[in-house]
Design brief:
Strand content: 25-35%
Radius of gyration: 17 Å
Structural class: alpha+beta
CATH superfamily: Electron Transport, Fmn-binding Protein, Chain A
Largest sheet: 8 strands, antiparallel
Number of strands: 8
Shape: globular
Number of domains: 1
Distance between the termini: 48 Å
CATH architecture: Roll
CATH topology: Pnp Oxidase, Chain A
Order of helices and strands: EHEEEEHEEHEHH
CATH class: Mainly Beta
Amino acid sequence: MAKQFPRLEAQHHAFIAKQHLFFTASAAASGHVNVSPRSTDMLRVVSDTAVLYLDRTGSSNETAAHLKADGRLTIMFCAVDGPPLIMRLYGRGRVIHRDSAEFAERLVSLFNGEAPLGARQMVHLDFDLVQTSCGYGVPLFDYRAERPQMDAWASAKGEEGIDAYWREKNQTSLDGFPTGLFDPPAEAAE
């Protein structure tokens, strides 16, 4: 049932383009494993061995903390409509700091220079294994729309409120690992 590939092939690109949801899974060497659902509207396929997503504010910042501590990251897509399929991308991720030149460059090249209010960073995944499996156990669902609550929440908070929220809720993980959210970008630290 499971098949493995060293990179995305044409059918994988087509599959990703049809998805509305993906999940990230990350962990440090100790502590809790984190799995987070995300909308594909902020996901971009960078190459046959790399993807990136614009990470919006959440109740925590577990993925960033785990990437800082360990670097392992898996992204999973599962078809909830159409033919059944699960696809995982296994590799190493890194955070692209929102104040970095790379963030600004990728925002222009991949997101038309526009970040939604509350975009806190980008997450880049270089992967060396693509694994597909049947997906027979995934229920069928109908996609209706993106939820409006994220934009409404960010708008109500405003930039200053979001910054305060990041400082209160997004600087450490559930297990106390630092997220690096307010670290200077790598090029500024050099």
